[in-house]
Amino acid sequence: SDLTPNAVATLDKQSQWLGRYPRYTFLIEGHADERGTRDYNYSLSGRRAQTVREYLGSRGIGADRLRTVPYGKERPVAVCDDISCWSQNRRAVTVLDAGAGS
């Protein structure tokens, strides 16, 4: 999975934030649209999350601070049978991990 320029800009800001707050961790959720088989979408969403993890790692964020989880097509943000919805569902989302230290 390739990162868009907008995604790179967002991830750069997130890596700067993570650099300032080293006790926090991120959960990186991978998602896919509804097309394709369950197995294919699960694998694809895992690759999306891994791409984000590798990019943040290249910006100096330790792998031990980044967890990934593939959701496949199970958690869409948009539900309709149209490319406008499919494109919104093809994504990786970074979430401040609930396990963050105090």
Automatic annotation (TrEMBL):
What PROSITE patterns does its record include?
OMPA_2
A GO CC annotation recorded here is: cell outer membrane
Location in the cell: Cell outer membrane
A Pfam family matched in the record = OmpA
What Gene3D superfamilies does the record point to?
OmpA-like domain (3.30.1330.60)
Q: Which residues form a coiled coil?
A: none
Record bears the keyword Transferase: no
What keywords are annotated for this sequence in UniProt? Answer: Cell outer membrane, Lipoprotein, Membrane
InterPro entries in UniProt:
Bact_OuterMem_StrucFunc, OMP_bac, OmpA-like, OmpA-like_sf
Q: Which parts of the sequence belong to the OmpA-like domain?
A: 1-100
Q: What is this protein called?
A: Tol-Pal system peptidoglycan-associated lipoprotein PAL
Organism of origin is uncultured Armatimonadetes bacterium
